[in-house]
Design goal:
Elements lengths: L2 E2 L6 H5 L13 E3 L4 H14 L3 E4 L16 E4 L6 E4 L4 E4 L5 H13 L2
Parallel strand pairs: 2-4, 3-4
Antiparallel strand pairs: 1-2, 5-6
């Protein structure tokens, strides 16, 4: 998983996703895991390095915790956005980076098929 820094063209879009423009974070790096194992490794590495870590799921964060100036590593979960349905269990699985629009669409599609 690459470490996206200020020199990377993706940095600005990854650090300005918040709906709350009162806060503007400037972490040293943004990590975008593609698997739960990637996320586990990223958290472990940040803790070992003593780097203040914030995790962003859907992009809200109205209280400013993700965009706090003390945050040095931002873990962006936007790639963990799967919404699945298991008909045998009649249960949904929702990834930690899933946006509500995707969740609602999947719920609607799967529940109207019943």
């Amino acid at each position: 998983m690459p470490s996206i820094t200020r020199a990377d063209p993706r940095y600005v879009s990854l650090t300005t996703r918040s709906r709350n423009t009162r806060f503007a974070g400037r972490p040293d790096r943004v990590l975008v895991p593609r698997t739960a194992e990637d996320a586990r490794r990223a958290v472990s590495a940040a803790v070992r390095a003593g780097s203040r870590l914030a995790v962003r799921g859907g992009g809200h964060g109205l209280e400013g915790l993700v965009d706090d100036p003390a945050v040095r590593t931002l873990l962006d979960l936007s790639e963990l956005n799967d919404v699945t349905y298991d008909p045998g269990r009649q249960a949904f699985g929702i990834g930690s980076g899933a946006l509500l629009g995707s969740v609602y669409r999947s719920l609607y599609v799967n529940l109207t098929r019943r």
